[in-house]
Specification:
The protein has helices spanning 3-7, 21-31, 79-91, 134-152, 170-184, 192-204, 247-255, 273-276, 281-292, 299-326, 334-352, and strands at residues 10-11, 38-44, 52-57, 61-66, 99-103, 113-117, 213-215, 224-226, 233-236, 243-245. β3 (52-57) and β4 form a beta hairpin. It has eleven helices and ten strands. Helices cover 42% and strands 12% of the residues. The strands form three sheets. A six-stranded antiparallel beta sheet has the order 1-2-3-4-6-5, covered by helices on one side. Strands 7-10 form a two-stranded antiparallel ribbon. The radius of gyration is 20 Å and the shape is globular. α5 packs antiparallel against α6, α5 runs parallel beside α10 (299-326) and α6 (192-204) packs across α10. The protein has 356 residues and is of the alpha+beta class.
Length: 356
């Protein structure tokens, strides 16, 4: 089965993610009658963290996102933050699904949830965007670059998100957060490269230059919905990890696709970029920097950014491993990501040893 086939579409609701239909129907009838009478619910195969469902009513099709049931790490899976950020971004004209309604009452389905618009279009689960010609593929990569540059160019205060996160010291706070989540998740175990990175990263973070933007936190091709017949990005999905932070930290997370192996989510290291019509890493970085008006990072700074982002992603995979142990993993592909964690941690440490 291809990665595209494995992740796309919906299936029956998976064990542990069932919804109490009577309570949900009653709540929707009282709080969102315009959404219509519920007809069917299926669970999306993609998505790694917050369970996501396709909700069909006699009035239309919508998407429901919920916090996973059961015990979760403190601060994780905050669907109320997701709802807030997409509400502000939608109001600002940035491409996100239209938010519809938030339910913070855990007694309805067992955890907070919200509903949003179902955006029709094309999701590429493979990062090389298969089935496109090189020129069309190049246009899609340009659209991704344009979209994240547009996100980082928004005035956070003007769109009502000035207090969405703490300003300043982004890398120090992120390193502390993901180190803490890694170290406190006893069920997921420890990894020697992660332990080394916990010590190395705080000593090598670049000086804070005061830049601040909305950061998506997981900007990849498979978190974007493209128009079915052109390179327009219709919606950016999965805002669970969003906050206020340093735009270069967010962009270089996206840039990791050039250095992650193809069997890891979002990676295409080693492919023939020119033949596929994919810009080089250096060109893609330079294009983004030109769009946002930044000087490209030095080689030393880029080494840190890559090590930091791979550590962060490895910490996310480590958290998935813990959720498997606790029985709250949302994705049918969670075990693969947990299994990839040691390799990713080793690759993250390798970035620290890159010759400048």
């Amino acid at each position: 089965m291809t990665q595209q086939a494995a992740f796309e579409g919906t299936g029956p609701i998976r064990a542990g993610h069932e919804l109490p239909m009577d309570r949900l129907i009653d709540w929707l009838g009282r709080h969102a009658p315009a959404l219509g009478q519920l007809q069917s619910i299926r669970q999306f195969n993609g998505g790694q963290s917050n369970p996501t469902y396709r909700v069909e009513t006699d009035a239309g099709v919508y998407v429901l996102r919920r916090k996973p049931p059961g015990a979760v790490l403190k601060g994780a899976h905050a669907v109320d933050r997701e709802f807030r950020v997409i509400s502000a971004l939608h109001q600002a004209g940035f491409p996100v699904p239209a938010p519809l309604i938030l339910c913070a009452d855990e007694t309805i389905i067992g955890s907070p949830f919200y509903l949003m618009e179902m955006v029709e279009g094309r999701i590429f689960w493979s990062p090389t965007l298969p089935d496109l010609s090189p020129d069309v593929r190049a246009a899609h990569f340009n659209a991704l670059n344009t979209t994240i540059a547009r996100l980082h160019s928004l005035n956070v205060s003007a769109i009502g998100l000035g207090d969405y996160g703490r300003p300043g010291n982004f890398f120090a706070r992120q390193i502390a957060r993901w180190s803490r989540q890694y170290l406190e998740d006893d069920l997921a175990g420890r990894d020697p490269n992660m332990d080394r990175l916990v010590a190395w990263l705080p000593e090598h973070a670049p000086q804070d230059d005061g830049a601040i933007s909305i950061v998506h936190g997981d900007f990849r091709a498979d978190n974007a919905i493209f128009a079915p017949d052109n390179a327009q990005v219709r919606a950016v999905l999965d805002w669970e990890l969003s906050t206020l932070g340093h735009p270069m930290g967010d962009f270089t997370y996206h840039l990791m696709m050039y250095r992650l192996p193809p069997h890891m989510i979002g990676g295409f290291a080693g492919v023939d970029l020119a033949t596929l019509g994919i810009p080089s890493e250096a060109d893609y970085l330079a294009t983004y920097c030109e769009r946002v008006g930044r000087t490209p990072p030095s080689a030393q700074e880029l080494r840190f950014y890559m090590a930091f982002n791979m550590f962060r992603l490895a910490a996310i995979f480590h958290g998935i491993k813990g959720r498997i142990a606790r029985g709250t993993a949302a994705s049918i592909h969670a075990q693969t990501m947990a299994d990839n964690m040691p390799e990713l941690a080793a690759l993250a440490w390798a970035q620290t040893e890159t010759t400048l």
